[in-house]
Amino acid sequence: MFRLYELTERKARAEELYLERVLDGLDPGDLSELIAETEADLATEIIQLARVKKNLDTAVEATETEEKRLREKRKRMEAAADRVRDRILGIFLDGQIEGPVRDGVLTVSMRRKPPRVEVDKLDVPMMTEAALLLNGRSFKVDVPVYFTELPDTRYLRVKVDIDVSKDQVKDDWKSTGTTPPAMHIINNEHTVVIR
Fold it and tell me: What's the mean pLDDT in 28-57?
């Protein structure tokens, strides 16, 4: 069996020799047979590679299906684990069990989760119209009013995300005991620790 580069080189050489002989008025002899034979070998190689590609495509599709099945299974297992954790937590809270529960292998205890910030849904900031010059062309765009000036940009699309620094809110709450408007500290959640 020839390698692909050998086949293509053999065909190119045979075609060059064939052309030289014809142009020189000589009989090309068995070169036409060699060219036809090489083309047949190349066709066989193409079919074999096409089969390999088709098998790989099928394997990729099967792998994607298996990934989807496993992802769904993982989600179901995570949900079941969350339900079990919530049941254990409910038993701790309802039974007012304080200390850890041990059986020689496992130790199960309840602890308070660290405080977290919850932000009420914020209204979208008002928009104001502004002129934007991009690549020598002028555009009118809506810009959130919290911009004091447009950022220097060459791009037409500008995305702006408003994010709350929850760590800063927690730090301020720890030092002052208060939170900004529309933000709340959730400080009464518990979780289960299994070792």
Answer: 78
